[in-house]
Amino acid sequence: MQNTIKVERAILGITQDELAKKIGVSRQTINSIEANRYVPSTVLALKLSAIFNKPVNDFFRLTDQD
């Protein structure tokens, strides 16, 4: 799975730490998601959707390996 979380954060002008606090996870979790090392739960993806005010499919995409 690929994502554009880093880009979405930049659009909002917030840091990994600020995003993490908004959705109740650690900064390391945000870093791992951005680096495609961690696939978030549905609940976490929906929280990100609410922060970015976009559908989940706008910032998460399946790859051929998925």
From TrEMBL:
Keyword DNA-binding in annotation: yes
Segments forming domain HTH cro/C1-type: 5-59
Database matches in SUPFAM superfamilies: lambda repressor-like DNA-binding domains
Top-level taxonomic group: Bacteria
CDD domains: HTH_XRE (cd00093)
Record keywords: DNA-binding
InterPro entries membership: Cro/C1-type_HTH, Lambda_DNA-bd_dom_sf
Name listed for the protein in its UniProt record: Helix-turn-helix transcriptional regulator
Organism: Winogradskyella alexanderae
